[in-house]
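Box S1 | Example of a co-folding query
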Amino acid sequence: MQIKSAEFLMSNSKVEKCPKDRLPEYAFIGRSNVGKSSLINMLMDRKNLAKTSGRPGKTQLINHFLVNKNWYLVDLPGYGYARVSKSIKRTFQKFITDYFREREQMILAFVLVDCRLEPQPIDLEFMQWMGENGIPFNIIFTKADKLKPMALERNIKAYTAKMLETWEEMPQHFVTSASNYTGRDEVLNYIESLNSN
Ligand code: GDP
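Box S1 (continued) | Returned holo structure for guanosine-5'-diphosphate
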């Protein structure tokens, strides 16, 4: 998919206030600092469309970007910088869980995971919650340029093994780097294939 246009539309903390039209949308979520803003800017081929983590307050909202005038890219707040909490409910802010439960035009969420780290409990808990609530998601491994190919492969194998402890299969996943544009075509073409279904 070619990106012909990408424009910021609105920020909200309430699902009811999100765009009312029925364009398909794709949500991006992950731990703070996972590289979400960089990935969004890379996918859209823009330097400053999504705010990078220098200004964390700005990302505590549901941000809608209209892409090619026919789908939304949704930038959700990073989770995981709150203190470790006892329950999932307290860990994931209510407006995020409301968003996923209520937003019918949300086709697929991309859960971002830093390829350098071993599986983080909060990411696994979040994906568990998504599974239990029947919300479709894929995984995007970020910052692939920071690892040598062998180490990258080893980490993804280890991640897959961890997922298979609770999942029947490894969810579809993409390997990306915002620094060198790795994975850009794969993610965008996948979105395009879902849009044309
Ligand atoms: P966010 O908090 O998830 O939006 O993360 P940011 O996009 O602000 O990135 C956090 C930090 O990781 C920044 O210092 C980025 O420059 C760096 N970063 C993000 N993506 C990449 C990447 O693909 N490669 C490298 N080398 N650094 C990255």
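The first strand starts at residue 6 and ends at 12. Residues 32-38, 52-53, 78, 142-143, 145-146, 177-179 surround guanosine-5'-diphosphate (CB under 6 Å).
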